[in-house]
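Anyone up for a design puzzle?
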């Protein structure tokens, strides 16, 4: 959002601050404590924490003795190293953050994205999924009366690929076609790999109401991990149906996560008047293994810039 006057910019800052206070109060009332992420992250640690880092967008900084750092490109991976250096994992840990991430843009510019978010570590998986998704729904309802939370499962698709043992390049090509909803391109690619008789051929149809998609997914052959992914979605469907908010959730099994560390449920939140997601998150248990302690882990981030724009345009 561009401003013509300093008064407009100051008004945006005031509105953003009010929103931040409200969200902080909500997080703290639900048992989350503030953590402050490090601004700089060791380049080697960043590479090890991310399977396919986008190095072109990563802002690199040269420190003392020619040591290379990155200007925080992702908050979740940043704070995990802070947490696991001091946490024994015996009791659940719930933290929230209020910070920025940085990325390179064209013409030498550096973009700053203001985010708030939560991370829940060490909780029971079912309880964790329910709590985090419910919190996401509550926040969405405060932003706009008309909202949708799209829910998917990265483990459903990843488990299929793991069983098929495709070349990495083929797997990435298929995922790109799926994420772009390119039906014709996907069908052509699947036929070239002799996968036209698998569930991938109809994956783009697996979106809609929770009950409809779960029922459709059960009609296709699935390995144990894929079946487990569907059971997790079933559990959430039952829970939110009883809560009376199932109509605000749509399932999309063709959803490909923006970040590669997710390994369970994933979700994105949208408001009726904005094509840009205002929040996203998911489960990332396996990412904790590299820190020497495997625990249940799930969280989400809120795009404060988009939420502020909605508020300024007449939202709640």
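Challenge accepted. My sequence:
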């Amino acid at each position: 959002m561009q401003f013509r006057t300093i008064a407009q910019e100051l008004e945006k800052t005031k509105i953003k601050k009010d929103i931040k206070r409200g969200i902080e109060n909500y997080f703290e009332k639900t048992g989350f404590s503030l953590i402050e992420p490090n601004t700089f992250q060791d380049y080697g640690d960043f590479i090890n924490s991310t399977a396919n880092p986008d190095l072109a967008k990563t802002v690199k900084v040269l420190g003392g003795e020619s040591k290379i750092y990155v200007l925080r490109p992702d908050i979740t991976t940043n704070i995990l190293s802070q947490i696991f250096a001091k946490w024994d994992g015996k009791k659940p840990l719930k933290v929230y953050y209020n910070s920025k991430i940085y990325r390179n843009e064209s013409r030498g510019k550096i973009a700053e994205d203001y985010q708030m978010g939560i991370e829940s570590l060490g909780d029971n998986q079912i309880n964790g999924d329910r709590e985090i998704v419910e919190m996401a729904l509550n926040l969405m309802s405060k932003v706009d009366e008309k909202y949708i939370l799209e829910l998917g499962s990265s483990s459903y698709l990843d488990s299929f690929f793991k069983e098929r043992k495709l070349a990495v390049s083929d797997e990435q090509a298929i995922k790109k076609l799926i994420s772009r909803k390119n039906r014709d391109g996907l069908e052509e690619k699947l036929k070239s790999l002799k996968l036209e008789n698998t569930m991938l051929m109809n994956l783009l149809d697996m979106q809609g109401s929770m009950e409809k998609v779960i029922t459709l997914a059960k009609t296709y052959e699935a390995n144990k991990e894929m079946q487990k992914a569907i059971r997790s979605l079933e559990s959430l469907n039952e829970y939110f149906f009883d809560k009376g908010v199932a109509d605000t959730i749509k399932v999309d099994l063709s959803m490909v996560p923006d970040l590669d560390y997710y390994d369970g449920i994933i979700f994105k939140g949208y408001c009726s008047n904005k094509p840009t997601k205002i929040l996203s998150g998911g489960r990332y248990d396996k990412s904790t293994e590299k820190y020497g302690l495997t625990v249940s882990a799930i969280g989400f981030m809120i795009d404060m810039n988009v939420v502020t724009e909605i508020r300024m345009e007449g939202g709640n």
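A detail worth pointing out: Residues 187 and 201 are 6 Å apart (CA to CA).
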